[in-house]
Amino acid sequence: MQRTNFGEITCSIARTMDVIGEPWSPLVLRNVYVGINRFDQIQQNLGISRKVLAERLRWLVERNVLERREYAANRYEYALTERGTELVGVLMVMVAWGDKWLAGEAGPPALYRHHACGGIGHVTLTCSNCGGPMSATDIDVLPGPGLTAPAAEPAG
Amino acid sequence: MQRTNFGEITCSIARTMDVIGEPWSPLVLRNVYVGINRFDQIQQNLGISRKVLAERLRWLVERNVLERREYAANRYEYALTERGTELVGVLMVMVAWGDKWLAGEAGPPALYRHHACGGIGHVTLTCSNCGGPMSATDIDVLPGPGLTAPAAEPAG
DNA sequence: CTGTTACGGTTCCCTCAGGGAACTCAACGG
DNA sequence: CCGTTGAGTTCCCTGAGGGAACCGTAACAG
């Protein structure tokens, strides 16, 4: 096998990477999210090769992240499914990190306005259990039920 | 240019992808995070090509995501920097998504125990401004100060 | 009812990145 | 002094990404 098949690794990171880990996939999702959802629009906005874009779209549709809709005769557009919409959360965290560490003096290229409070903010991570802040330094990683291979460390 | 340089796209997703978007990078970070932090350990745990692993580690060290430490004469190990530790948050959200949509009946391969509350949970996204839940459907994306190109839509 | 666009891809070729295995070099361990 | 281990490097091969051209259908223009 040329490229390793991430979907077969027992690790939720690897499995998620199997879906959106190919180069361009997150940017394609972002574009669909903000309303740039037709083939030529996406291709021009990103400067992605048409060949690769076609592959990515097909892949994401197969994984039920996007759906393909005929909005006119032989004209198609793409939309996020529920799965896909939840994936945008991953992108939002990427943006928070990129804004903090890579945006430089120019500041972030995009801002988020939260409907609930009307304010501009970014996303923070909290615990589903207690609601408190949850970062990489606040947790222990333990083996879970889906861990099949007898790995020395829990795989993800 | 063969591979598109994501770092030059004015978008925090693209910039973050420039750092950890190459295949394997997130899994390498995850391994270092859980303590699998030496060359051969990582290589064997992931089954990654030694050549690619060497490239990824060099790249991540250059971007200040990892640091390379000599723990014995000519023996090196890798550790997350502050930047890198914050990146693990992105991985945690990937895990939450993968656990929900891809783990199947076997359940998640790993669990998180939150130090603060002692419970097993996953990460949820909240607004830095009001503390309320924040998902892709709860926000508007607006142009930010770092947006240079006159794009029709805010780039990220 | 014949051009001309526009959209949504597909096909082709070329180059470079990933995979795999072998090799290197330095430091132990006995 | 020899074998082993860690940490890479080098080599070749294949296949994925980039670029540009091409194709089929539909709507429109004249």
Automatic annotation (TrEMBL), chains A, B:
Transmembrane segment boundaries: none
Entry keyword set: DNA-binding, Transcription, Transcription regulation
Domain HTH hxlR-type, first and last residues per copy: 11-106
GO molecular function list: DNA binding
Gene3D superfamilies associated with the record: Winged helix-like DNA-binding domain superfamily/Winged helix DNA-binding domain
The name this protein goes by in its record: DNA-binding HxlR family transcriptional regulator
